[in-house]
Structure formats: C-alpha cells, structure tokens
Amino acid sequence: MQEAAKRNVPVMIHAHGDEGARAAVLAGAKSIEHGTFLSDETLQLMKERETFLVPTFITLEDLTQPGGDYVGPVLELRGKFMMPQAEKVFKKAHALGVKIATGADNGYTANTISRISLECAHFVRMGMSPYEAVQAATVRSAELLGLSSSTGQIEKGFDADFILVPGNPLEEIRFLQDVLLVVSNGRIALKRIPFGKK
Ligand SMILES: [Zn+2]
Predict the structure, then answer these.
(1) Residue 96 within any structural domain of the chain
(2) Residue 78, domain CATH
(3) Distance 104 CA to ligand 1 centre (A)
(4) What is the pLDDT of residues 37-86, one digit of tens each?
(5) pTM for this structure?
(6) Could you tell me the distance, in angstroms and rounded to a whole number, from the CA of residue 55 to the centre of ligand 1?
(7) How many A from CA of 78 to the centre of ligand 1?
C-alpha cells in the first residue's frame, strides 16, 4: 500500500475476513472485494473513508453451482455458508451509504456462469433500487477505477460505452441479462439484431 501510494496507484484488496479487510481500509485501500464477514465497525470506517465495497455476490453463488469458474464440494460448502453472510453485509453497507460497485471475481469467459447483470439483479433483490444497481455497474464502477471523466455515463465527450437491452432495466432489472448490442468506445463489439443495414 505504501509503495502504491508513492505513485498514486489505487489498491484493491480481496478479503473475506473482517480483520484483514479492516487493516486494508485503515491502510487506505480503494476497495474491498468480497467483504463477506465485515463487521459494523469496519463498514462504518469504509463509509467515513469512502472505501468501496465490491460484493462479488455472483462469485460466491458460482461456488455453489455446477459449472462456471469454481467447482468442487468444498467450494460449494463455502459458498453456501458465505452467501447469507454476504447478504447481511450488503444490506448493512447499503443502509449506511457505503459506496458499492459491481465486480466479478472470475475469468468472465464464455463458460463463466456469473455475469454483472446477475450481480445487479442480486443487488435489487437485496434492497437496492434498480437505478442504484445500474449506477453500481456504471458510474460507480467508473469512479472506483478512476475513469469517471471518460466512461460510466452516456455524456458528450465521453467514450461511447453502452449496451442495448430489450426493455427498461429501471422497471425490470433482468432486462440487463438479454444484451442485444454492445458498443465499446464507439465500436460495435456484439450485435444480435439486424440494425443499420439496408
Ligand atoms: Zn477474490
């Protein structure tokens, strides 16, 4: 953390346990990934220091499911044990106003079963408004990554990074799971609809 601070490099810390996470927050971590067993005191510290929480709920869920990035009986038990705990922490963090961003601790390959759209759906199920969940995946994530001035929102002068979905995610967050078009920095990366051709 000290070496990173010398060069202004933000540090993300993957921590399930409270003790390590708390030490990381006190040392100036930009974000805590997982945070499964965070205490109320550590969450309060995160609120004060504006440390992000990246719950990676979908990754905990992946542990419990066949296929995906994480498979095995021990991981399955761990995931089932951690999910209710992570849910409690999420609800407390959200109520406290801790900054929350989406993230997935996996390879994000074609075989990956967890997706950010599913993380957003979990956030809504656990008490966020759909608008907050979309923000967690966009403006909040951009802020965490130090990219607030170039991406995370559709704005003049920003990179053209956006997706097209078949309905309003503010009415039904699961629309995020059916991506029709991905535009990355102005270039079409995925197109599932006949569009713009005569
Ligand atoms: Zn991790």
Answers:
(1) yes
(2) 3.20.20.140
(3) 9
(4) 999 999 999 999 999 999 999 999 999 999 999 999 999 999 999 999 99
(5) 0.94
(6) 10
(7) 13
Which residues sit opposite 183 in a β-bridge? Answer: 162, 188
How many domains is the chain built from? 1
Residue of 104, 127, 97, 21 whose CA lies nearest to 57: 104
Ligand 1 ion local residues (Cβ < 5 A): 14, 105
> Angle 1-37-49 (CA atoms, 0-180°, nearest 5)?
45
Task: Give mean pLDDT, residues 95-123.
Answer: 95
In a domain, residue 45? The reply is: yes
Q: Which domain holds residue 62?
A: 2-150
The DSSP-derived string for 35-73 is -TT--HHHHHHHHHHT-EEE--HHHHHHHHSSSSS--SH
As given in the structure block, the two tokens for residue 176 are 């995020």
Has residue 98 been placed in a domain?
yes
- H or E stretch at 160: none
* 193 domain residue, yes or no: no
As a whole number of angstroms, the distance between CA 11 and CA 4 comes to: 7
Pure H helices in the chain: 2-6, 18-27, 40-49, 57-64, 73-96, 116-125, 130-137, 139-144
- Beta bridge mates, 34: 15
